[in-house]
Amino acid sequence: MGCAGSASRSKKSKIARSAAALLLVLGLLGTVVPAQAFPSASIKFQTSNPPVTGAIGQLYSTSTWARSVLIRPTAAEDCSSTGCVQRFVGGDIAWSARTGARVVVNGPVRNAWWEADGPAGYHGYPTTDTVSGLRNGGSKQLFERGAISFSPATGAQQTAGSIHLAWGRTGFEAGFLGYPAGSEQTGLPDGGAYQVFERGFIVWSPTTGAHPSMGAIRERWRQSGLESGEFGYPTTDEATGLRNGGSSQQYQHATIIWSPATGARALTGAIRSYWSATGGQNGALGYPVSEEYRQNDFVYQLFQGGTVYWSAATGAHSTTHGDVHNRYVSLGGAAGQLGLPLTDKLPRAGGLVQQFVNGWLVWGPATGARIVGHPTYKVWSINPDEFGWPVRDTWSDARGSHVAFQKLETIWNDSTQELYSAEAVDASTVVFLGDSQLDLDSWGEQGARAAGYTRQVVRSIGGIGYVSGSPAVGGNSATDALLLDRILLPQGNPGLVVVTLGGNDARIFATDAAILSQANRLWDELRRKYPRSTILITGVLSRYDASHFQRRWVDGLLTREAAVRGWPRISMAGTATIAGATWNYLDDVHLNQTGHNKVAPLYASALKYVLAR
Q1: Inter-axis angle of helices 549-565 and 512-529, to 10 degrees?
Q2: What is residue 39's predicted lDDT score, i.e. its pLDDT?
Q3: pTM of the entire structure?
């Protein structure tokens, strides 16, 4: 009996132990097992779990990952007017109609969420499940009003609003900025805010939005005083992939641009606008290599390809590397002889020119860069082929400001405001202004030599007249060409100035009124240029035959007008016939050399007679 009873008690004890073990296993699995199934057990166990229902239950029951992470519920759903949260061993499931059901896994992200009052706090409900296994052992979860991100190095930090979106543009934690390293800070000027990240900042203001600030560009911004300094807030994200590996960022009042070769430099004001308009780093200037310098009343900045200057009086212009720039620098730059640039470097006639406050630099391929004064340049630039390139810098003496060109030397006289050629003249000099009647060794030149004028300056332009124009002087008439300095006469006091024009006006049948109007303008200009010289009007050489009637008419028109004005004059009407040169013509109007030789003595006699009166 005792043994049997002992055996019976031993058997019951084993059954009880087995039942308890089974209950424990089933309880862990969430299986409810009625205590009545084990009537012999002497200890009762709690085997029921809180119910998991609705959308939370749907997620829990259909997601293997959710069940593996959460294990089992530890409390019933806690609901409010906005949604529900149910707690589990491994975390929570939060649900709202706006966001659906999401898993919030135990850890730093969940802790930070609950420390901020969970769904009732700033973040609201989660919009994603907790994501772990991120860079450097981090985790993250998005909520209605931002995100919470965690890494062992930075802890759990919130990002929200525009700053969160700007962080996203950089690639979140996998991007250059890395994880947030602090919370958003407010109280900056103009209502701004910022947040610190592992490798930089994001800065926000109501007017500029949120933009990252990092690296060498941020350091240059910091040197300026950050958002409280002269540059203000950033207005763009940093733009990368620029020429030669550069990057740039725009600010309210500046651009900061960086390249490996030049570092981070700031561009502001008119110099920034000019640089941008000329192609920025892709243009001739390239990247800035210095900050802006102020000197007296102007500022300047150095670039890879040159220098940009600005003043209130001249605006912004550059000198770009090359002979013109080098010459300008050798002359002292903006503080030197030429002063500030008034234009950029410009192509001209196969060379280059640039205007400065006190003159121009004119560069020819064979002559280099030379200084030319403003008035002289104005005339040269109209038809540079008449002059060639300057071979020497302008210089001054008692006569005025000289420039030596390849083909002639000029003088600008400030007192007369006239540009002259630099041929030397004296009482023995005759200056001729005429058309192709002065070709070869003309009757006019021979006659003047015979009258004692051995030094001669001849301006002989085919096709020109008082009214008739010539391509050689830009299509202008002699009158207009002289007034426009397309014809340069020598400076000084020549003994005689002779005008031999009118044949081409006869050729084109110019009206009497037009001829007389232009003739008087030209004669008056000559008198202004040469107030102490004798100015003589020569008519139109012609024959007595009918084909030269119009030439004889214009001759009479001019010599009669000269008589009315009191000007010395010589009529050449019919002189070729009188001289026996009727058949000594190259064509109908131009004498050959024999014809010139025959007419010359008659002209010499007339000249001596007129000048002797």
Answers
A1: 50
A2: 36
A3: 0.77
Complete DSSP assignment for 89-108: TTEEEEEETTTEEEEEETTH
Q: What does the chain come to in residues?
A: 613
Q: Please give the Cα distance from 274 to 35 (Å, whole number).
A: 89
Q: How many CB atoms lie within 10 A of CB 440?
A: 18
- Distance, CA of 562 to CA of 574 (rounded, Å): 19
DSSP code of residue 227: G
Residues 216 and 287: their CA atoms lie apart, in Å, by: 15
Return d(Cα 284, Cα 317) in angstroms, integer: 13
At CA 506, angle to CA 503 and CA 511, rounded to 5?
A: 135
Q: Is the CA virtual torsion 243, 248, 250, 253 positive or negative? A: negative
List, in sequence order, every beta strand (DSSP E) within 160-245: 185-188, 192-197, 200-205, 209-213, 239-242
CA distance 369 to 148: 66
- Buried b / exposed e over 263-281, threshold 16 CB at 10 Å, is ebbbbbeebbebbeebebb
Do 424 and 402 contact (CB within 8 A), yes or no?
A: no
Count of helices and strands (H, E) across the chain:
16, 35
The secondary structure of residue 175, as a DSSP letter, is: S
**Alpha-carbon gap, residue 537 to 572, rounded angstroms:** 11
Question: What are residue 78's DSSP bridge partners?
Answer: 85
Residue 570: what are its φ and ψ, rounded to 5°?
Answer: -135, 120
φ, ψ of residue 78 in degrees (nearest 5)? -115, 110
Compute the distance between CA of residue 329 and CA of residue 338 in angstroms, rounded to an integer.
10
Distance CA 318, CA 272 (A): 12
Q: Do residues 207 and 218 lie in contact, with contact meaning Cβ atoms separated by under 8 Å?
A: no
List phi, psi (to 5°) of 235.
-110, -5
Do 562 and 569 contact (CB within 8 A), yes or no?
A: yes
Q: Residue 109 and residue 468: Cα distance in Å, rounded?
A: 94
pLDDT band (50, 70, 90) for residue 303: very high
> Contact 379/394 with Cβ under 8 angstroms?
no
* 3-class secondary structure per residue, 508-540: CCCCHHHHHHHHHHHHHHHHHHCCCCEEEEECC
For the chain, the first-to-last Cα distance in angstroms comes to: 182
| CB crowding 406-417: b at 16 or more within 10 Å, else e | eeebbbbeeeee
Calculate what percentage of the chain has a pLDDT beyond 90: 89
Report helix, strand or coil for 156: strand
pLDDT band at 11 (very low <50, low <70, confident <90, very high): very low
Cβ count within 10 A of residue 7: 10
